[in-house]
Amino acid sequence: MLTKIKQWLTNNRFNIAVIFAIFVLDRITKEITLRTVAINGPAEIFRYFSFTYAENTGVAFSMFRDGNFLLIFVMVAILIFILKSWREIAGTKKPWGNLGLCFIFGGALGNLYDRIFLGFVVDMLDFKVWPIFNVADSFVCVGAVLIFIAMFLGGKKEQKELK
């Protein structure tokens, strides 16, 4: 079992680096938010954009508010599913799918960290016309788009194989 894990880690250095970079970027933005915006209040950058501190105990758009305990288990289950299904979802011929999974996994880890250690997810990006969100949420959404692209706009070779 340990040998398989070592082999997987070696074969997936790029994926691990992307996931780690997303996690670190998310943590940095959240720490800055906790140390500045949470104390000093919102910081308007442009007319329609500001950094605003918000604690989210639910999921997107504050659905399932105060469901943090259940959401921790759901997120862990999703992360396990992604790991077990990585090869089938990303595929060797679908680099966009692989990158998309890295984005989703890194973003999910960032928000899971918050849920476990803070009891809520720190949100800060406020475009005034959209609910407040964070860097991890952004990567999850972009990752979903990349997987969509990989699934429906596969390479020419893949499309020929399907015919």
What does this structure look like?
The chain has six helices and three strands, in the order H-H-E-E-H-H-E-H-H. Helix content is 67%, strand content 11%. With 163 residues, it is mainly alpha-helical. It has a three-stranded antiparallel sheet. The longest helix has 28 residues. It is globular.
Number of strands: 3
Please trace the helix and strand order, writing H or E for each element.
Answer: HHEEHHEHH
- Low-confidence spans: pLDDT under 50, at least 5 residues? 159-163
**Average of the residue pLDDT scores:** 87
Percent range for β-strand residues: 5-15%
Task: Describe the main β-sheet briefly.
Answer: 3 strands, antiparallel
Summarize the structure.
The protein has six helices and three strands; from the N terminus they run ααββααβαα.
Itemize the secondary structure elements and their pairings:
Blueprint: H1 2-11, H2 13-40, E1 43-46, E2 49-56, H3 68-90, H4 95-117, E3 121-126, H5 135-152, H6 156-162
Antiparallel strand pairs: 1-2, 2-3
